[in-house]
Design a protein that fits this description.
Blueprint (H helix, E strand, L loop, with lengths): L3 E2 L6 E2 L37 H5 L5 H16 L3
Antiparallel strand pairs: 1-2
């Protein structure tokens, strides 16, 4: 219920997002997107860290900015 925006038109039901910062420790050739009957993604690629901010729809941009800002120190502190 807390994800329902009742004061906006049209009525919007938000999505809860969980963000993870992962390190690929295998050869990138082993990343496969075609191992299920209906893959959610059709591909992937390496991009600069802040690149997604310019690609996401405007209304999601601030939440992406906050998530990337929160994860950035962990990325820079990697060993």
């Amino acid at each position: 219920q807390r994800l329902v925006r009742t004061h906006s038109q049209p009525l919007c039901i938000g999505q809860k997002q969980k963000w993870f910062l992962l390190r690929l420790v295998s050869n990138e050739q082993r990343v496969r997107m075609d191992l299920t009957g209906k893959p959610e993604f059709d591909g992937w690629r390496w991009v600069s860290y802040w690149y997604p901010l310019g690609q996401v729809v405007t209304f999601k941009r601030e939440v992406y900015r906050r998530a990337l800002k929160e994860l950035a120190p962990r990325l820079l502190a990697r060993d």
